What we know:
Pseudouridine synthase, 17 strands
Amino acid sequence: MSEKLQKVLARVGLGSRRYMEEVIAAGRVSVNGQIAQVGERIEPGDELRIDGRKVQFQIEDEIRRRVLIYYKPEGEICSRNDPEQRPTVFDNLPSIQGDRWVMVGRLDINSTGLLLFTNDGELANRLMHPSNEIEREYAVRVMGEVTPQLKNNMLKGVVLDDGPAKFESFSELGGDGINRWYQVVVKEGRNREVRRIFESQGLKVSRLLRTRYGTVILPRELRTGRWIELDKQDIDNLTKSVELKPRQGTGLFGMAKRRNERMQEKPMAARRGGYLRQQRRDTDEQQPQYNNRERRDDQGFGRRENQNGTQFARRDNREDNQFGRRENREGNAPRGLYGANKGFKKF
């Protein structure tokens, strides 16, 4: 049982496979005391070092396969890091010691719904590869009338900038007025594919929610911004759909299993609205908040003036009283050095 060296190094979080190949080619990696070569395979028990520092690793088949469902809210981006400092879908995921989460597919910043994360890179690649034709199901709210002709066009196929595209199925979910909901299925994961198919027919998507990816359905009890971990049976069904063999130890154990059971019995509240909605609230409330702040400041300033005046009056009274007491003491104390009643000394 062995695995390619650059794949092992990438999985433990030291960099991408391509970067790890460059590191290996530079002679910075050794296996059992010998300088490693790109493409070399490593086995359990081998001593792996990079720049002289020992690296702990496991062969992929020995690692417990894990899969998370995450309910993406509007406003989060599908990236590990964002130069604009916007929230990302990785911000709320649990940490995974000695491994990392790999995202399966993407959703644009305005879309919501089901995202899958796994620590198995091969599973993620197979689920995303177009050749495996894994179905993605969406609930879509559309502005405009979807006539039978337009529906037929989208089922037969339309031509987009990056090639032909179509819906595998198309059904109506309901709605009122010009905003109606539809359920559609695609087998590719191209960028904004669902939106662009509708736009090709002069229709605008106002909301898009992914409800299914392959064999995994977005649970009703899961709230936006929350995650839940799949158990063995669900993971095995998912891996079977892309012809991967099951792994030993797959599934939930101990605290993780009890946490999932509690989630189903008593779902956690959704995280406070998405980033974009929060921005809109902040913009809408900015002026009233500013006025309230001015009013609070004015009231606070008035209170401060009153407090200062009271404090000054109290200080004046205290000083007057102290001065009066001092005069009395001085008037009564000529007979002694320390006052009339204390430390008195006759001359």
